[in-house]
Design brief:
heterodimer; A: TIM Barrel; 8 strands; 47% helix; 15% strand; globular; B: alpha/beta; Rossmann fold; 2 domains; six-stranded mixed beta sheet; four-stranded parallel beta sheet; 45% helix
């Protein structure tokens, strides 16, 4: 799968990779465009673009409210796909879609993933599509070269991680703690032990997010993960300080 | 209900990975409880002692005469403790929580009935309790909020989305994924990820396990038809359960709101507006747009105002085992008024939907036929909504006076 190769290639430089997140259409596609440009210019390696869903059950208040605002402003799935294609054509880093199962189910799995491939999208993260519910989702993604990224949780047993890794492609997203997106937690021994467990169960690259805000947070991941995930922090930043604040924030993370 | 009643295409457990292990354990506990006759015996004993079970089957003699057709019987779930069938589900799940050794329960609530029932159960069993309720429903159902808080539950008004039941469910899931080790989510209806639809339908089957005995005693045979309102579908599945393998006609009545043609309703199966989808952990027929975004729903009855419906009912609908109809807000008020005047019985606005359809069909049936209306709850909890719908002048004057008193700091 292209995504895994791309990540491993970027890892050969030695430093930990950065993945950032945006909610499509929030606050607008125009601002999304500026934010992504700043992210790429300042060394982000990978971006997940969230297609808003009206029932974002696994997201915390910041992302949930952004999704709601985007939908209220008229954001349609077709707009998101057109924008995704534009970004993948404009910037030379991997782009992924993050969304919920219903968005892709309603679009139709084969059609959605065929369009994603044509647009140059390399992966998809769907928190409410576990492999045991697969009804054509995984096959459609893989046939189109779009990596289905799966999520490990601290509650996942070793056996479960191995089972998930069998279906996952690209990389594995390790949720560092219980709960929804957007909550801060610290990099303690428990998290390190969990990440070592993740490492032992799969050869896929590991991405991890836990409310990263500083370069120290990122340094703490060196040696235990391949990619640090910046989630809702940049949404807050754009809300409070505008799109122009994103570049300096990413730059200080890179140190 | 046998597993074969559930079609592979509906239901499922579309859950985030963080809940995977919890659902494995929950499935195990539910399986063990269902295989253990002592669980049901304990459940029945508790429901008799705490919640007036078996609830009566009341012959509605005046209504039967009024319509001049079928003999109308009313299954009185309103006489449960806390005034609705919701008590059945929460006490059953409370027993499961005890078995699982968890100490905290959370729940979503629409009309507030499930929230009150859950808070009652938590008080009885000594669990910590948080209830998630859409901010719109908090406004609509203030008296239930009052009681939940008095019962010791923390009521969280959900300000996201449409601020109704579906949004309360999302927020309850967010709590659950954060506190999964200590907490059980007492799902209120036969929806959500498996095993909740099957679990809740099974616990609610206590309704039809009683009614099938009661109607045979009274009529010497099974009823011709059974009517139940359908929000999530738990009272309907409970009322239908023991009759699924008989030839009794089963009718689910959804919220027609302002009328199916207006789009302002919550009829998933009685209208052509719903389509298959995956949300809130399960696959069912949802009222959604072409992109898969959930639509606004409308009903005078908060408990029916929901975008999805039990996957078990969708399966029974597809197999043409259950027929679906819709009742408009206006029809509901008329049926409620008639029932109150003729029988001295006050159905909840939700339950009154079932009465509407039964009243439409009763005249064309023979006096040899019996029909059962499942009265899922009592209506006095709806006094603010019902009084507004009646536009009752003396109630209005009372509220204005009371508000003035409070404003002046009196009591």
């Amino acid at each position: 799968m292209k995504l895994r190769a791309e990540i491993e290639k970027r890892r050969t430089a030695g430093r930990i990779l950065l993945m950032t997140h945006i909610v499509l259409g929030y606050p607008s596609f125009a601002v999304n465009r500026q934010v992504i440009a700043q992210m790429v210019e300042n060394g982000v390696d990978c971006i997940e673009m969230q297609i808003p869903f009206s029932e974002p059950m696994a997201d915390g208040p910041i992302i949930a409210k952004a999704c709601q605002a985007s939908l209220a402003s008229g954001c349609a799935v077709a707009d998101c796909l057109a924008f995704g294609a534009e970004m993948a054509a404009t910037h030379g880093i991997p782009f992924l879609y993050m969304t919920y199962a219903n968005i892709i189910f309603k679009y139709g799995y084969p059609l959605f993933f065929a369009e994603a491939r044509a647009a140059g999208i390399q992966g998809v993260i769907v928190p409410d599509m576990p492999p045991e519910m697969d009804d054509g989702f995984f096959a459609a993604a893989k046939e189109n070269g779009v990596a289905p990224v799966l999520i490990f949780a601290p509650t996942s047993t070793d056996a479960r991680m191995k089972e998930l890794a069998r279906h996952a492609e690209g990389f594995v997203y390790c949720a560092a703690r219980r709960g929804v997106t957007g909550r801060k937690s610290s990099m303690d021994d428990q998290v390190l032990a969990y990440l070592r467990r993740c490492r032992a169960t799969t050869e896929l690259p590991l991405a991890v997010g836990f409310g990263i805000q500083t370069k120290d947070d990122i340094d703490a991941l060196t040696g235990v993960a391949d990619m640090a995930v910046i989630g809702s922090k940049t949404i807050q930043l754009v809300d409070s300080a505008g799109a122009a604040a994103v570049g300096p924030f990413i730059a200080q993370l890179r140190g | 209900m046998r597993a074969s009643h559930i079609h592979d295409d509906w239901g499922g457990a579309y859950i985030p990975e963080i809940l995977h292990q919890t659902f494995l354990e929950l499935n195990e506990q539910v399986g063990a409880a269902r295989a253990d006759a002592s669980f049901w015996a304990e459940y029945q004993r508790l429901m008799a002692e705490y919640s007036c079970r078996p609830t009566p089957l009341t012959f509605a003699e005046n209504l039967s005469k009024h319509f001049g057709g079928a003999r109308i019987y009313i299954k009185r779930e309103d006489l449960n403790h806390t005034g609705a069938h919701k008590a059945n589900n929460v006490i059953g799940q409370g027993l499961l929580v005890q078995r699982m050794g968890k100490k905290r329960v959370i729940a979503e609530t629409g009309a507030g009935q499930h929230g009150v029932a859950c808070a009652t159960m938590a008080a009885k069993f000594g669990f910590d309790c948080a209830i998630y309720m859409g901010a719109v429903d908090v406004q609509r159902q203030r008296p239930n909020v009052f009681w939940m808080e008095k019962l010791g539950a923390k009521v969280v008004a959900v300000e996201d989305g449409q601020r109704t039941l579906k949004d309360a469910i999302n927020e309850a899931f967010r709590d659950w994924v954060t506190n999964v080790d200590t907490t059980h989510y007492v799902f209120g209806t036969a929806c959500g990820p498996a095993p909740f639809p099957e679990l809740v339908a099974w616990l609610q089957s206590i309704i039809s396990k009683e009614s099938i005995i009661q109607i045979r005693e009274r009529c010497g045979k099974l009823p011709k038809r059974i009517y139940a309102c359908v929000g999530g579908g738990s009272n309907a599945l409970g009322a239908f359960y023991e009759y699924l393998d008989t030839d009794v006609e089963l009718i689910g009545v959804e919220a027609g709101g302002d009328g199916l043609s207006t789009g302002r309703h919550a009829a998933r199966l009685a209208s052509d507006d719903a389509s298959p989808g995956i949300a809130q952990g399960y696959k069912t027929m949802f009222l959604q747009n072409a992109d898969g975004q959930m639509r606004e729903t409308h009903s005078v009855a908060a408990g029916l105002d929901y975008v999805g419906v039990s996957p078990i009912l969708v399966d029974l609908w597809q197999k043409k085992r259950v027929r679906f109809e819709a009742a408009t807000d206006t029809e509901v008020m008329a049926a409620l008024d008639l029932t109150v005047k003729k029988e001295g019985i006050i159905p909840a606005l939700e339950s009154a939907h079932a009465f509407v359809q039964a009243f439409k069909e009763a005249p064309s049936l023979s006096p040899d036929d019996a029909i059962i209306i499942n009265m899922s709850g009592r209506g006095d909890k709806d006094i603010f909504t019902i009084a507004s719908a009646y536009d009752d002048p003396s109630w209005r004057a009372f509220i204005i006076e009371k508000a003035a008193e409070y404003r002046q700091g009196g009591r």
